[in-house]
Amino acid sequence: MSENNMGDALGITFQSFKDDEIIASMPVNENTIQPFGLLHGGASVALSETLASVGGWLNIKEKGKTAVGVEINANHLRSVKKGNTVKGIAVPIHIGKQTHVWETKIFNKSEKLICVSRCTLAVVNI
């Protein structure tokens, strides 16, 4: 995987890489907040798509292919203040030859659900 990508800019740190579960954390800091000091919904979506894309890539067994996002939605359920960390857990809902669908749940430090997202990936040539 490449260095100096959006995940690096957002401080995303991976804890687990499995075909059926990807786990990573992200700080709620100056790079991930909106103007009122709360986690930006776009940062949650970026975390979700990053986890889904890595999970998709892990599930592609054919050389010369990767997975890219074609659709994502997110429901933001709770806010998180600057200075905290969130954890995302992504699991596959569908792994096909041409498309994958992943669900990501993002939790605060108290393990309360703050965001749930679903991402559809296309399997493409690189």
TrEMBL record:
For this protein, the record's CDD domains field holds: PaaI_thioesterase (cd03443)
What Gene3D superfamilies has UniProt attached to this entry?
Hotdog Thioesterase (3.10.129.10)
* Residue span(s) of domain Thioesterase: 36-115
Which species expresses this protein natively? Fodinibius salicampi
Record has Hydrolase as a keyword: yes
Asked if the record carries the keyword Hydrolase, the reply is: yes
Q: What is this protein called?
A: Hotdog fold thioesterase
Keywords associated with the record: Hydrolase
- Family of the protein in this entry: Belongs to the thioesterase PaaI family.
